[in-house]
Design brief:
Blueprint: H1 5-23, H2 33-42, E1 46-47, H3 48-55, H4 59-71, E2 75-78, E3 88-91, H5 93-113, H6 119-137
Antiparallel strand pairs: 1-3, 2-3
């Protein structure tokens, strides 16, 4: 019997998360923090709202996650250009080092998950999952946490 799409997606996500949490267990990071570190590695100095949107995290949740990261010395938040309403988030040196490690962890997990896939199959899978994501993000299906 073939498993349903929702089951396969959830099971694969769970396995990916377990692999990631195992690989970072000695870092002191909480589950939401690795993807933020990875995002900031290429987007250092962005506003919290952009991080929340890019990482699919609710705005109220991102504030507490970033506070924890700031307390660990992984990020700093600053007002720029006299704009007191927006805090810009920057990686510290320690945060950059850990983000680099996280990036390697993500790559290792992806390599394990995609072992035996041809280049074409990898591209096709990525394309199809992107299409699923766009369909699910369309207003009316899933929009800003509201169904």
């Amino acid at each position: 019997m073939q498993e349903s799409l929702h089951y396969l997606l959830m099971a694969d996500h769970l396995l990916f998360q377990k692999s990631l949490l195992t690989s970072i267990k000695n870092t002191g990071l909480t589950p939401g923090q690795p993807k933020i570190l990875d995002y900031l590695l290429c987007h250092d100095g962005v506003v919290q709202k952009e991080i929340a949107e890019a990482c699919h995290i609710e705005p109220a949740t991102i504030t507490s996650i970033l506070l924890g990261m700031e307390q660990k010395g992984l990020i700093t938040r600053k007002n720029l250009k006299g704009n007191r309403r927006s805090l810009y988030v920057f990686l510290t040196a320690e945060g950059k080092g850990l983000a680099g490690q996280i990036r390697l962890n993500f790559q290792e997990i992806e390599e394990k998950a995609l072992s035996g896939f041809s280049g074409h199959e990898k591209e096709l899978l990525s394309s199809l999952l992107t299409k699923v994501n766009k369909n699910m993000c369309r207003k009316g299906v899933y929009h800003n946490g509201q169904e």
